[in-house]
Structures are given as C-alpha cells and as structure tokens.
Specification:
299 residues; alpha+beta; globular
Length: 299
C-alpha cells in the first residue's frame, strides 16, 4: 500500500473513525484511493497549530457522520494547488490568526467566487499570547467565517465578551478574513495532550489522551453540526424557491440576498453555539471526579 504524504492526508470511514475516537487515537494519515471523489470529500487545511488540532478532530467526525472522506492539507502551497478543478463537497480552513493573510487567500477567494453556492468555511482561533505546553491541544476564541454568494458571514465563539455586538453573526460584502475587531480574547481551554508520530517524513497519527467522556462531547458536537447543516440547507431552499431566479422569472434579488444572509447568519450562530457546548462538555469531563480503586465501596 502507498502511504500518502502529510500534504495528502485521507481520513478513514465512519466505523473506524469512532473506534479511533473511543481509543483516543486520531488518525491524520491512512491509506486509500489516490484520487479522491471530490463530491464526497471534505478538503481541509489544517495548520497543525495547538488550537487547530481539536477542530480537526471535530471535522473528522462531521465528515464521517455524513459518510464522506476527508483530505487534510498541512501546507499552504499544497492546499492552494488542490483548490483548482472541480468543486469539493466542502472546503474548510483551520488556522491560527496571523498578521497577514495566508498565501492561499487569493486562490481561496477565486474558488469561493467560482462556486458561490458551495461556499468556504474558515475557523480561525486566537490567543492573547499565552504560553502553551508542547503537545497540549487547546480551544481558544474562534471566528466561524462563511464565504458564500459573494458575502462573508462571521460569528465568534468562546469570546470573553459574549454579549458584544460583533460576537453574533454579521455579514459584510466580499470575501474577507476575520479581524476580531471588538472581540475580547478568552483564556485558552486545554483539551488534552497529544503527540504526532512521524515516520520517514509521513505524519502518522495524532494521539489524544483516551477518555470516553470526551468522546461523548465529540459525538454530541457532530450531531449538532448535522442539525446546523440540515437547517441551513432547508433555509437556503426556501430562499431559492421563494425569491430565487428561474429561467422565466428573475425573482426578487433584494429579498433573495436578504434571505441568504439570514440563512448564513443562523448557520454561523448555530456552529458557534455548538462549539460553546463542546467546550463546556470538555471542561466538565476534565473537572469531574472519576472513582478510583481507593474510593470504590467494599464488596
């Protein structure tokens, strides 16, 4: 069998994925078809930062729940090259906030403009310059950004000022990256320790500490993301059927645009809320008291 390079990482199918979750192993490289079916494959850029690791785990679960495969790109050049050609089922970006835009920004905008109904989802996490332990996966304040139909919709999750005006989803024209303006950055939330195994330059796995409680958190997030996706599909369908153009009728462009914005904002808020609950679930798991041998009642 051929081992994919770390730039060409394929996920395994649904049954295997959740078995790995239960064992605390997150496979970042497996074996499979050399040329993925784009219609059933999520293309995900993962910068492998400590805040992107748990997001990558969650997206693996979302892909598996939809019976889709997942292709990770871990370098900007490789990701940019994969944006050419036919559209992917979904395109997702997981990255740490940086001063400048990524080198693939132009190619990503071209992809979003070429496939306006497919859209692009960008998860950008940020910290306050806090030190992080090596090999410690964390959740930080995260911008959930959706590029679709020539517009950008952004909502923020895990902000320190959750009632701020810009935390809730808002939409602006064109395709832009989040600037975190007016957003107070929250304290990083440790998830679990992990290690990367690299053999002959191939990224083999990311290993998280096994915990059935945290596995339940992941599965719950995946279920909620499924609801978010179903709802935005239904909402967009109403927009298309009620206000959208047809061969014989131009429809109502203003109402159509407003309806699509509403659908995107509801979706961004839904994902933000799911990420909030995932964080609360993880922190509850980490803080709970698990009975050990010394605390077990005598038979």
């Amino acid at each position: 069998m051929k081992a994919f390079r770390k730039e060409d990482i394929m996920s395994i199918g649904r049954p295997g994925l959740f078995a790995f979750f239960s064992m605390g192993l997150i496979p970042f490289v497996t074996y499979g078809q050399a040329i993925p079916n784009r219609e059933t494959t999520y293309l995900v850029f993962n910068d492998r930062s400590v805040g992107a690791v748990p997001l990558a785990v969650l997206w693996q679960g979302v892909a598996a729940a939809n019976n889709c495969s997942l292709l990770f790109s871990t370098t900007e050049a490789d990701f940019m090259s994969k944006l050419n050609g036919e559209p992917w089922c979904r395109v997702v970006v997981l990255r740490r906030k940086s001063v400048s835009e990524p080198s693939f920004a132009g190619a990503l905008r071209t992809y979003a403009a070429t496939h306006p109904n497919r859209g692009v989802e960008i998860f950008t996490w940020r910290d306050n310059g806090e030190p992080t332990a090596e090999g410690e996966a964390v959740l930080g304040t995260t911008a959930i950004t959706l590029w679709r139909n020539g517009m950008t919709t952004t909502a923020y999750s895990l902000a320190a000022n959750p009632l701020a005006e810009n935390v809730r989803a808002h939409t602006t024209p064109n395709h832009t990256f989040p600037d975190f303006a007016g957003i107070q950055i929250g304290t990083l939330k440790p998830i679990a320790s992990y290690t990367e195994t690299v053999t002959e330059g191939v990224l083999q796995i990311v290993q998280l500490s096994p915990d059935p409680c945290q596995t339940t958190c992941v599965n719950t997030f995946v279920t909620e993301m499924g609801t978010c996706s179903t709802n935005v599909g239904t909402h967009t369908g109403y927009c298309n059927d009620t206000y959208g153009p047809t061969e014989d009728d131009p429809g109502d462009p203003a109402q159509y645009a407003a309806c699509l914005i509403e659908a995107a904002q509801d979706y961004a808020n839904c994902v933000s809320a799911a990420l909030h609950r995932y964080n609360r679930c993880i922190q509850w798991c980490k803080g709970r008291i698990v009975p050990g041998p010394s605390t077990q009642p005598a038979p």
